[in-house]
Amino acid sequence: MMTADRKGANQKVHWQAHQSTNTEVPENTLAAMRYAWELGGIPELDIRQTADGVIIGMHDATPKRTTDAPESQRDRPISECTFDEVQQWDAGIKFSEPYRGERVPSLAQIFSVLAQYPERELYLDFKEVDLEQMALLIKEYGIGRQIIFCHCDHENCKTVKRLAPEVRTMQWISDQTVDFRFQETRETGFDSLDIVQIHLVDDRADGGWRYRLQREFLQEALTHVNEAGLELEVLPFHFDQDSMFELLDMGIRRFAVDEPKVFVETIDRYFNR
Q: CB 3.0 to 4.6 Å from 233: which of 166, 167, 197, 238, for a disulfide?
């Protein structure tokens, strides 16, 4: 999304619809992908693989939380279900009636839509898939430059960069492990990475810096990442106008958010003050 700051200079803010925007649209559905794209963001698809080798969009290891899978299948691992079985489940009705009929999509189905819009991008959050098969599918659809692969394991990011060099890779780091994980990654020269994501969890009772991770550490991390020619992304699990303005004032321009509509409205207010 392009916006103009109060001095008139253009700024590009990139944002990820974390977990497919599950607060506003049923997660990991084609509806969620389109929703984020139309708002100017980048949807995230969590990826798993079925028993017959089809890569699908599914966050959890079982279909219980997000689909109407029958009782006999609710607690069955996705890795033990066939794609035909998965296609029988409704992935929208548990969210709300207007989304009745949404299905769990295959990665190929999402890619076929993405390939029609070269300006659009997609995050792939690794859960449990064959990375070589994923890379082959990316190459088949010719969308490598539109993909951001993300995982907490730096080694998986290295593997994907080797298999599909045109794909951007992002390592996400929780705020509880960031002290040593970030340093470990930095010592490799951020090998094979394009983006580093840091999670921000609430800590304050009232007033002041909102997050458990110290502001000074985040500012230093932003400096290191920028100096290496990468981007820093933050995932604030909660935010208000003051905390988001503070992150933007620090120079952060890439976010992952659970409330896209609220985020977009907040960004617009920031650049139009």
A: 197
Instruction: Tell me how far apart the 2 most distant CA atoms of the chain are, in Å.
Output: 60
Q: Yes or no: is domain 2-60+106-271 CATH 3.40.50.720? A: no
| CB contact at 8 A, 176 and 187 | no
Task: Tell me the domain boundaries of the chain.
Answer: 2-60+106-271
pLDDT tens per residue, range 53-67: 999 999 999 999 999
pLDDT digits (tens, 9 = 90+) for 13-49: 999 999 756 678 899 999 999 999 999 999 999 999 9
Question: Is the model's pTM score more than 0.90?
Answer: yes
Residue whose token pair is 């969620």:
32
